[in-house]
Amino acid sequence: MKKIALSLTMLLSTLSFNSAIAFDGDAEAGKAKAATCAACHGPNGNAPITMYPKIAGQHADYIYKQLKEFKLGMTSGGAKGRMDPVMSGMAMPLSDQDMKDLSAYFAKMPMSAGTTPESAVVQGQQLYRAGDAERGIPSCMACHGPRGNGTSLAKFPKISFQHPEYIKAQLEKFRDGSRNNDANGMMRDISAKLTDKDIEILSKYLGGLH
Q1: How far is the C-alpha of 74 from the C-alpha of 164, rounded, in Å?
Q2: Which positions in this protein are listed as binding heme c 1 (predicted)?
Q3: Is residue 165 part of a domain?
Q4: Domain membership flag for residue 6
Q5: Is 1 known as a binding-site position?
Q6: Domain end: 108, 130, 145, which one?
Q7: Does the annotation flag 41 for ligand binding?
Q8: What is the tally of structural domains in the chain?
């Protein structure tokens, strides 16, 4: 728990520096480049297939970071960044400006609303808002905010309205270490303490969080 708190403090201490960095993506240029993204993510970034994430309304800085790390995953043979058999290949031909333009475009699109099943509300809200002190699990809200909107400056993603199937898959990947591009290992540390039931409940809860 102390490690997580320290990591978060270190990360947030960089916000004043990051806030001075302008994001110079061109949304109109990104729209013209987004045709190849539509097959998985839909024409407006709201993926119709739940194994793929909704990227509409996601923070541009976060999308840009993930695209760069997908490309790095391929160029490093999986030793660095984020390796994915589909996305790493898709990111390979993209220039830095392409990534910024695509990120700016999808960030401007509205994310479609989701739902939370009644059975996940009570337990999901408890885990999301308060965590579990006995197991050393901090609240998700501490980084992702009360409405799951995250924050662009710290590159914490918007996770509300996301497909539960995608959220579940990513938490499982953080837990088993197959995804390791989280800042200071925070998501890996937290996910390692989550049970299968925790992950299922959180994934369903986030689908309709607003």
Answers
A1: 27
A2: 37, 40-41, 87
A3: yes
A4: no
A5: no
A6: 108
A7: yes
A8: 2
> Distance of alpha carbon 91 from its chain centroid, rounded?
17
> pLDDT truncated to tens, each residue of the chain (210 aa)?
544 444 444 444 444 334 444 579 999 999 999 999 999 999 999 999 999 999 999 999 999 999 999 999 999 999 999 999 999 999 999 999 999 999 999 999 999 999 999 999 999 999 999 999 999 999 999 999 999 999 998 999 999 999 999 999 999 999 999 999 999 999 999 999 999 999 999 999 999 997
Q: Is residue 92 annotated as involved in ligand binding? A: no
pTM to 2 decimal places:
0.89
> CA-to-CA distance for 55 and 51, rounded, in angstroms?
12
Query: Domain for residue 37, yes or no?
Result: yes
Helices (H) and strands (E) in the chain, counts: 12, 0
Show the domain range for 200. Answer: 118-208
37 labeled binding residue: yes
Residue 210 CA, chain-centre distance (Å), reads: 16
Q: Judge whether 168 lies within some domain.
A: yes
Q: Is 163 annotated as a binding residue?
A: no
